[in-house]
Design a protein that fits this description.
Radius of gyration: 25 Å
Distance between the termini: 11 Å
Helix content: 25-40%
CATH superfamily of the largest domain: Aminohydrolase, N-terminal nucleophile (Ntn) domain
CATH topology of the largest domain: Glutamine Phosphoribosylpyrophosphate, subunit 1, domain 1
Number of strands: 25
Strand content: 15-25%
Oligomer: single chain
Bound molecules: 6-O-phosphono-beta-D-glucopyranose
Structural class: alpha/beta
Strand order of the largest sheet: 3-2-4-1-10-9-11-15
Shape: globular
Length: 600
C-alpha cells in the first residue's frame, strides 16, 4: 500500500525524501512531494517509478522549505503515471493519501473543479478546497465526513503555512513531534530517526500538527493519549553489511525467535488462555491471516490440534466473511499479521467479533490496528521487517504458535506438566536458533543448485503433514521475488493432477524430513523422478540414503517434529532469494507487491 510522509522543520524536503525511502516497501509505482512556499500554492514535483527518479527531478530546484509532504505509490485507481502520482492539489491545498475512497465517483459529480487524474485521491483535494471551513483543519474535518472507504491523509495549505492536518480511517497513520519539528507518516520507520515516541492516530481521528505540537481530535473533542514508546532503533531499519533486507532478515531469524521467546511472559499468556478455556466456553480455535502469515496459521492449527486436541482450522482472512464462515462465542479466533495493518485480516477480525468470537492477535508491530481491535495480543519480537517477502516474522510466528498450543494443552494438564512442557519447548526453540547456522553454512551449495535449476519456467514444492504449508510458503517465496511460476501442494495430491506439469528437468522441491511422513515422501519423489523431474530434497541431517535418491539435498538440523516447519522453511527462503538474485529481480521490492496491504 502507499506510504505518506509529512515533515515540519529545517530541510523538510530532504527529510520527506528520506522518509519516503524508508517507506518505499509500501509501494514504488510513482512518487512525489509538495513543499510550502510563502504566499504561493504548494509547489509539487512528482515522477513515475522509484524515489530515485523523483530525486533526479528535484535536483536543480530550490526546494528548501520548512514544510513538505510526500508520497510513494502502490497504484489502485489509475495506472502508474506522473498525472496519477501524488501529491494532488486544488487551489492552495496539496495532499497525499493512502487508502481507497469507495464513493469517489459520486463525490466527483458534486465538485465544481475538473478532475484531471484517474485517481480517487484528487477528488479529496478538490472536496477540501471547496469545503466551507475557515481553517485548513475545518475544511479537512468537513470534507472527510463525506468520504467512504479507507484513508490516511496529510494536507497542507499556503493559507495555513505552519500546519499539517492529518486524518485517519482504517489506513495507519503515526505522528512524531520533537524540539525542532514534527513528522507524520504511514508507519514508524519514517518517524524513528527523529523520535521513539509515536502518536498513533485511531479511526476517525484528525490532528493538527505543527513544530513540537500536536492536537488530536475526534468529533471536535480533544483526545489526550500518551505516545507509544518504540524500542526499535534506526540501525535495525538499515541493511547493515547485507546486500538486501531479505538477506539480512533471513540471517536475523535466530535472534527473532530468541527475542520472541524471552520478551514474552508465557505464564501470563497461559493465564489469558486459561481464562478463556477454563469454563469450557471455547471449543474451536480458528486461525486467520493473509500471505505468509496464512501459511503460519495452517501450521499453527495443525500444531494446536496435534498438541492440545482442541479442534482447530485455518480460514483465509479475505474469505472469512464472503464465505459466511460459521463463528460464534465458542470460538477463539487467532489473527496473525506481521504489520498488524493488513485490511483483509482486520475485516476478518471485525466479522469474527460481530459473530461473538474472542479474538487473539499475534503481531510484530507495536500499536497496530489489529492489536487495537483484538481482545488480547501476543507480540512477536522479530524487529522491523522491511523486505516485502516475509521471512523472520514467519519463524517468529511459528515459535509463538507452538507456545500457544502448549498453553491450550496445559488447561487439561494442570500447571506442573505445562511448566515442564513449556521449558522443553523453549529449549527446543533456542536450539533451533543456535542450529540454524548449519543451514546458513550450506549457502554456497544452494547457489550451485540454482545454477542447475535456473532455466526453470515453473517449479513444484511437495510436503506432507506439517510440511504442506511449508511447501506452500516455499512456492510463495519463489513467486514473490523471482516471478517464476511455482506451486506448493500436499505430495499425496500430486498424482491426482499436478504431476501433469512435470517434464524433463522440471525442478521439484521435496520436503522429506525424518518423521511419520518420510516413507510416503520417498514414493512421491519416485513418482516425480519417473517423469524426469530434477529433485531438490530438504532432509534431516544424518540421512545418508536420500543423497542416492535425489539430485540435490539441503540438510536441516534434527529437531523435534513440532519445529521441523520452522527449520525446513529457511533453505526454501534462501533458494528463492538466490534464484531472484540469479534472474536479477529486485529482491526487496518485487513488482506489484507491497509490505502490508491496507485496502481490501
Ligand atoms: C503481503 C506481503 O502484502 O501481505 C506478505 O507482501 C505478507 O509478505 C502478507 O505475508 C500479509 O502481511 P501481514 O503483515 O498481515 O503479515
Amino acid at each position: 500500500m502507499c506510504g505518506i510522509v509529512g515533515y515540519i522543520g529545517d530541510c523538510a524536503t530532504k527529510n520527506v525524501i528520506e522518509g519516503l525511502r524508508s517507506l518505499e516497501y509500501r509501494g514504488y509505482d510513482s512518487a512525489g512531494v509538495a513543499l510550502m512556499r510563502d504566499g504561493y500554492a504548494p509547489f509539487v514535483i512528482k515522477s513515475e517509478g522509484r524515489i530515485g527518479a523523483l530525486e533526479m527531478k528535484i535536483n536543480g530546484h530550490n526546494t528548501e522549505t520548512g514544510i513538505a509532504i510526500g508520497h510513494t505509490r502502490w497504484a489502485t485507481h489509475g495506472k502508474p503515471s506522473e498525472t496519477n502520482a501524488h501529491p494532488h492539489i486544488s487551489g492552495n491545498i496539496a495532499l497525499v493519501h493512502n487508502g481507497i475512497i469507495e464513493n469517489y465517483l459520486e463525490l466527483k459529480e458534486q465538485l465544481n473543479a475538473t478532475v484531471v487524474s484517474d485517481t480517487d485521491t484528487e477528488v479529496i483535494a478538490h472536496l477540501i478546497d471547496e469545503s466551507p471551513g475557515h481553517s485548513l483543519f475545518d475544511k479537512v474535518r468537513l470534507a472527510v465526513k463525506k468520504l467512504e472507504g479507507a484513508y490516511a491523509l496529510a494536507v497542507i495549505s499556503s493559507d495555513d503555512p505552519d500546519t499539517i492536518v492529518v486524518a485517519r480511517k482504517k489506513s495507519p497513520l503515526v505522528v512524531g513531534i520533537f524540539e525542532d519539528g514534527a513528522v507524520v507518516a504511514s508507519d514508524i520507520h519514517a518517524v524513528l530517526p527523529y523520535t521513539n515516541e509515536i502518536h498513533v492516530l485511531h479511526d476517525d481521528e484528525l490532528a493538527i500538527v505543527e513544530k513540537n505540537y500536536i492536537s488530536i481530535q475526534k468529533d471536535l473533542e480533544e483526545i489526550e493519549r500518551d505516545p507509544l514508546e518504540i524500542s526499535w532503533s534506526v540501525a535495525e531499519t538499515s541493511k547493515g553489511d547485507f546486500n538486501t533486507f531479505m538477506d539480512k532478515e533471513i540471517h536475523e531469524q535466530p535472534i527473532a525467535i530468541y527475542d520472541t521467546m524471552i520478551k514474552n511472559n508465557w505464564d501470563s499468556v497461559t493465564e489469558d488462555i486459561y481464562a478463556l478455556f477454563a469454563d469450557g466456553l471455547i471449543s474451536n480455535v480458528i486461525l486467520t491471516a493473509c500471505g505468509t502469515s496464512l501459511h503460519a496459521c495452517m501450521i499453527g492449527s495443525m500444531i494446536i490440534e496435534g498438541v492440545s486436541r482442541v479442534r482447530s482450522y485455518t480460514k483465509l482472512a479475505s474469505e472469512m466473511e464472503s464465505s459466511a464462515t460459521i463463528i460464534d462465542k465458542n470460538d477463539l479466533v487467532i489473527a496473525i499479521s506481521q504489520s498488524g495493518e493488513t485490511a483483509d485480516t482486520l475485516q476478518a477480525i471485525r466479522y469474527a467479533k460481530r459473530c461473538g468470537a474472542t479474538v487473539m492477535a499475534i503481531v510484530n508491530t507495536m500499536g497496530s490496528s489489529i492489536e487495537r481491535e483484538a481482545d488480547f495480543t501476543i507480540h512477536m519480537a522479530a524487529g522491523p521487517e522491511i523486505s516485502v517477502a516475509s521471512t523472520k516474522a514467519f519463524v517468529a510466528q511459528l515459535s509463538v504458535l507452538s507456545m500457544v498450543a502448549i498453553a491450550i494443552r496445559s488447561i487439561s494438564w494442570g500447571s506442573f506438566h505445562a511448566g515442564k512442557m513449556f521449558t522443553s519447548a523453549q529449549h527446543e526453540i533456542y536450539r533451533c536458533a543456535e542450529d540454524m547456522q548449519m543451514i546458513f553454512d550450506q549457502e554456497d551449495k544452494i547457489k550451485e543448485i540454482i545454477n542447475d535449476i535456473s532455466g526453470a519456467k515453473s517449479m513444484l514444492y511437495l510436503g506432507r503433514g506439517l510440511n504442506v504449508p511449508v511447501a506452500l510458503e516455499g512456492a510463495l517465496k519463489l513467486k514473490e521475488i523471482s516471478y517464476i511460476h511455482a506451486e506448493g501442494f500436499a505430495a499425496g495430491e500430486m498424482k491426482h493432477g499436478p504431476i501433469a506439469l512435470i517434464e524433463e528437468f522440471t525442478p521439484v522441491v521435496a520436503i522429506a524430513t525424518d518423521g511419520p511422513t518420510y516413507k510416503k515422501m520417498l514414493s512421491s519423489i519416485e513418482e516425480a523422478k519417473s517423469r524426469g523431474a530434477t529433485i531438490v530434497a530438504i532432509a534431516t541431517e544424518g540421512n545418508e540414503e536420500i543423497e542416492e535418491l535425489v539430485d540435490h539435498v539441503i540438510f536441516i538440523p534434527n529437531v523435534g517434529e513440532l519445529f521441523v516447519p520452522l527449520m525446513a522453511t529457511v533453505p526454501l527462503q534462501l533458494l528463492a532469494m538466490f534464484m531472484a538474485e540469479y534472474v536479477g529481480t529486485d529482491v526487496d521490492k518485487p513488482r506489484n507487491l507491497a509490505k502490508s496491504v491496507t485496502v481490501e
